[in-house]
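User: I'll paste a sequence; please echo it back and then give the predicted structure.

Assistant: Echoing your sequence first, then the prediction.
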Amino acid sequence: MPKQIDYQLTETEHSIIEEVLKRSESARVVKRATAIRMLHLGQKPEQVAEVLSVSLATIYGWFHRFRAEGTAGLDHHPKSGRPPTADESYIQVLEETLETEPSELGYNFALWTIQRLNQHVSAVTGKQLVDERVRLILKEQGWVYRRPKEDLSAKQDKEARKWAEEFLDELKKEPVSPMISSFSLWTKPP
């Protein structure tokens, strides 16, 4: 038969929990202190887990961490794990790429899309991310996507454009002759 755990708190531990419940600004810490208080008041760990929508193992972990570390045991402890792929060097390459025209890097397109940007930065850094993660990184860094304006000036013949601008300037200089109104079916002969 498993060993029974005594959930009764000492007077000092109880006053610490009450103080945490009154003063803490962290919702996580308050939730954990609430669980410990409920255990102290006689609630079964299964009931506490159900009320707080956490697993039974979580309740046991909170209680044992509080007993071992005091209020520090109620704080959030970051979990170890794989470091993020998008580190500072990745973000720096990403931002430098966004500030550079694609044509300067040898591409035959004028706008960076998420897919094109991701492919280029992956080739430079050797770190492959999914497109959605790149989009989230850009948002975190304060970049905002704006809809491009239609600009066909790169595809226009520069000489023809210059001739058309000069021709329009000449047309603007000539006096305007009165025209017959075209908004009415009724007209008067001149």
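The first helix runs from residue 11 to 23. The mean pLDDT is 85.
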